[in-house]
Specification:
The chain has about 250 residues and is of the alpha/beta class. It is about 40% helix and about 20% strand.
Length: about 250
């Protein structure tokens, strides 16, 4: 049986963390959970330490300061890869990603190297989002598909599972992305290295506690990075093709 590590970065998530850890453990009791806390001033790290003492399989990685979502995930990936986990999963601590869909992601990961919990495939949707934010996300993903020529409906989605052997190769050469475009960067790296990417539908629910870290400037910066990648590789470049590079849809 594969060993699974669920990685959840935190910064000021004290109100959300106990609930999300509880839901993760209910959905996948055998999985380990790693909380990567960026020295949250609200005491999230202390709450994480308490959960680690109380619950077997819960671990905490403390970082000195806030350095961005991508940097937190990279630290969590290295922690998990160094300890031999077979599958590494990204999930937000704010409850927007439904832990109840973890079994579906892990099932798809038996056949795919990267599995994305997708809002924009049939069966996927968002809840409690303003219409403007939903439109921005849809347009951003369409732009990514167009300019990078990648067959993925939700390349910006942050609820995902990687098989460790693939992740090691995806990270080769270092990853400079740290913000919103981090997910896009790893998706394009996976496809261009010939790995299989699958998407399973999820319902994304906007946070009910705490403050979102997303802003218009973060989104615009990400789109600029995507444009740069397209210019470097050439917009005339064909999309990845073949049995191991297509954007496979897993709708279970």
């Amino acid at each position: 049986m594969s060993t699974v590590l669920i990685i959840t970065p935190t910064y000021n998530e004290r109100d959300n963390l106990p609930g999300i850890v509880g839901r993760i453990r209910a959905a996948v009791p055998a999985a380990h959970v790693l909380v990567v806390d960026d020295n949250s001033p609200d005491g999230t790290g202390l709450i994480a330490d308490g959960l680690a003492v109380e619950l077997d399989g819960v671990h905490v990685l403390h970082r000195e300061r806030k350095q961005g979502l991508g940097a937190a995930y990279l630290a969590g990936f290295r922690w998990g890869l160094d300890r031999g986990f077979d599958v590494l999963v990204e999930i937000d601590a704010d409850g927007s990603h439904p832990p109840e869909r973890l079994p579906a992601l892990l099932h798809a990961a038996e056949r795919a190297d990267l599995v994305i919990g997708s809002r924009w495939v049939p069966g996927g949707r968002v809840a409690n989002w303003p219409r403007r934010r939903e439109l921005l996300s849809r347009l951003a993903n369409r732009y990514v598909r167009l300019v990078l020529r990648i067959p993925v409906a939700d390349a910006t989605g942050g609820f995902r599972a990687y098989r460790a052997a693939a992740l090691e190769k995806i990270l080769l050469g270092g990853v400079a992305s740290r913000g919103y475009c981090f997910q896009v960067d790893l998706t394009r790296r996976a496809l261009h290295r010939g790995f299989t990417v699958a998407e399973v539908p999820i319902t994304f629910v906007d946070r009910t506690a705490g403050a979102s870290k997303m802003s218009m400037w973060v989104l615009l910066e990400a789109l600029w990075r995507v444009t740069q990648w397209a210019l470097i590789t050439g917009t005339a470049q064909e999309a990845p093709s073949g049995p191991h590079t297509s954007g496979t849809l897993a709708r279970g």
